[in-house]
Records
---
Amino acid sequence: MKGISNKNVFFIGLMLFSLFFGAGNLIFPPILGQQAGEHFIPAIAGFIFTGVGLPLLAVIAIALTGRDMQYLASRVSPKFGIFFAIVVYVSLGPSMGIPRVANVSYEMGFSTFLGTDLATNHWPLFLYTFLFFALVFWLSLNPSKLVGTIGSILTPLLLLSIAALFIAAMLFPLGESGPALNEYVDSPGIKGFMEGYLTLDAIAALAFGIIVINSIRDQGVEDKKMITKATIQAGVIAGIGLSLVYAALGYMGVTSVSLGYANNGGQLLTLVVQQLFGDYGLILLAVIVTLACLTTCIGLVSACSQYFASLQTRVSYGWVTFGICLLGLIVANLGLDTILSISKPILLIIYPVSITLILLSFLHKWFRGIPAVYGCALLGAALISLFDGLKAAKISIDFAVPYLKHIPMYEQGVGWVIPAIVGACIGYVWGRINSKHSQATGK
């Protein structure tokens, strides 16, 4: 029975780190650090708890099933499993996630070197995204080589670039920390918790889990227990890496108050690298952003392509990959603002449902895998998250607001938690009653 070496597990963990670490993850911690100030430690702890903890739980949930997201969601019903997987892959893939990382790479990396007139012209964006997706397509054609491409080459380059930035910030401190601002004054841990929650990486983890499993199988490992163990180990390695990088980026934000308070993390990070390295800092930032976006995009394209290729037999993996990259190119050229306006409402609806599904998977044996528990809990979460999505889409929900405000934690953005728990309890009672009725009638 063939096992897997610690070295290969380590590189698979590095690959998973890069799949998670996109441009969004790069810009969240610095602005958190600047605004949390003297309350940075509880704020970053809350951020890591959800920003790292939830994705790690998702990877473990997939590892324990030994299968993919569709299999996990099919515990509600087989049809729901297919429906849920398609919705998530389309959202993470060509409609939102993939074009967004390409566009962010252009906005934060390449466009900073263009003049104002040229940066606002459509052609530079098209040419950049065309080359970006051509490279992503080429690197995604052979999923079995992802560990070598990302884990052994691109991830070390990314980590070295971030390390150079952090070391410079340590050797040449930008200044002292400032006072905490906004919600970080009274509840820094909870605010950090919510910022980590909003990274939405738990959804991506559902897609990336099968990439990790397949990478382990490519090493010749077939035993389910070994695959599960190696997947969890790779997830822990990725989690440790993410935690350290988040803490480092957050620290840079803490010491950046002397540069002035920024409107967002991207603006703040640009100010920091310029202060530390001058104009050459923009080159370093462009390298970091491009590598972060490139690795994440490769992972998303590969995950989506593997799923849609397995869903049917007529179109090969290569052609599916080409189609996804082509759609990503088209959507990316709609502009970042358009992509964000479309993606946020949909992700706010999907995310609570995904988290509920992940958490229930760990309690599967306790409630005997009763499908009604999954169904009712997901329904409870979806009902509340639907209103959050409508609100983000600027669709009036005034009629429901007076009722929603009575739901615990709704104002904090996690109002779906209690309805999900209540739904799970109702589903359990319902399932048990149906089970006893079936036994009594002999059906």
---
Amino acid sequence: MPEDLRDRLAAIASERGQSLQAYLFDLVNDEVRRRDNLAVMERFSQKRYGTRLSVDDVVGALHRERAEREAALGMFGGDE
């Protein structure tokens, strides 16, 4: 690493109250986290949500479970 770059990074680390090593660790950690976030956003943008269920399957399951819960609680048709 060029000395002038190391000195600049050390000054920034010092301003933050960190050692150069701790500051560089934070930089690398933040970069990895951003990459992970970008990968998740990419997956969602391609509609790969981790399930092969259709929206209708999910909505149907929710309605069935809610109806069972309401029946168990003595609630019918959404009336309390």
